[in-house]
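// run 5 | inverse folding | seed 20
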């Protein structure tokens, strides 16, 4: 286990922001965590990176940055209807989706092509096209820094919410996720009701009985048509959460914006943040190398050498304009450091 100093984090974040970490280490096994915890020469402030696809660096990181490279996928349990698949935290999320499809296991096909690694999936409670990962997570294994031990949280212990979990609240910065067990289905029940999936399936010439593979292919096609490849242009996918607003506010906005899209939510109506941002004129906006994607206003992009502070400032201006026009305060989905 090699601990490096003053390491550039540009290759480790999808925005491509060039900041440095005072201390940096890559982990590949759980047993290294005990050794790392006992090391008194490294900072006790820690930042865990998986794919680096949900973070915006605005300054150098005076902390121990841990690149979680724990790999492996295996069957933990199986019965006639389900397979419990255990994936290590460093596994690329989309590779897990493809693995499940190749092994004819349903439940995460709508989450295809979401950037990042498995370890971030319960933390963010990632979701897309009518699915959230909380619906298939059985348990999460993690290392508790202060208690110096492994612990396992069942689904009900994780306090999942919209893009939220105990790992962003009560256990924030206290644990490192090492693996996740997903309860997947041998008997498939695909979900094609959300967004443009049905339209895309029709474009692909798919019949009335889509499979988990065709649904995943449809999702991939939709995402590729809207979202920029972070390997070509710096971005972190969706920068803002889709806000849930009261029915009263929705009806008030609808009087002036009759075409406002919306989806039912537990406590009101969920409105697409990208639509709100686009109505405020931000789609395709660019200031230097900081900008808003031309095809999807929900995505902020780094065209080359934008700083994290410039990207953050742009997000602040967008939040202000949406609040002024609609009375809705957007919340960032991306973590700010």
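// decoded
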């Amino acid at each position: 286990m090699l601990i490096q100093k003053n390491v550039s984090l540009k290759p480790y974040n999808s925005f491509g922001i060039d900041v440095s970490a005072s201390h940096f280490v890559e982990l590949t096994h759980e047993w290294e965590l005990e050794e790392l915890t006992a090391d008194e020469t490294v900072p006790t402030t820690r930042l865990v990176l998986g794919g680096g696809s949900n973070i915006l660096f605005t300054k150098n990181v005076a902390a121990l940055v841990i690149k979680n490279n724990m790999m492996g996928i295996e069957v933990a349990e199986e019965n006639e209807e389900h397979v419990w698949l255990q994936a290590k935290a460093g596994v690329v999320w989309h590779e897990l989706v493809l693995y499940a499809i190749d092994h004819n296991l349903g439940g995460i096909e709508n989450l295809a092509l979401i950037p990042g690694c498995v370890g971030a999936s319960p933390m963010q409670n990632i979701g897309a096209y009518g699915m959230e990962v909380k619906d298939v997570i059985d348990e999460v294994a993690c290392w508790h820094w202060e208690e110096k031990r492994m612990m396992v949280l069942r689904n009900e212990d994780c306090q999942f919410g919209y893009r939220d979990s105990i790992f962003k609240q009560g256990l924030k910065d206290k644990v490192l996720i090492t693996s996740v067990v997903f309860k997947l289905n041998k008997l498939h029940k695909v979900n094609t009701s959300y967004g443009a999936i049905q339209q895309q399936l029709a474009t692909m010439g798919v019949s009335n009985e889509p499979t988990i593979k065709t649904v995943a292919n449809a999702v991939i096609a939709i995402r590729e048509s809207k979202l920029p490849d972070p390997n070509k242009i710096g971005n972190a996918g969706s920068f803002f959460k889709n806000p849930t607003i009261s029915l009263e506010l929705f009806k008030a906005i609808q009087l002036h914006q009759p075409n406002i899209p919306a989806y039912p939510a537990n406590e009101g109506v969920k409105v697409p943040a990208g639509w709100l941002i686009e109505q405020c004129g931000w789609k395709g906006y660019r200031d230097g190398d900081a900008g808003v994607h031309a095809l999807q206003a929900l995505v902020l992009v780094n065209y080359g050498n934008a700083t994290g502070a410039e990207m953050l400032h742009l997000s602040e201006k967008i939040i202000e304009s949406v609040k002024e026009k609609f009375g809705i305060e957007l919340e960032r989905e991306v973590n700010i450091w």
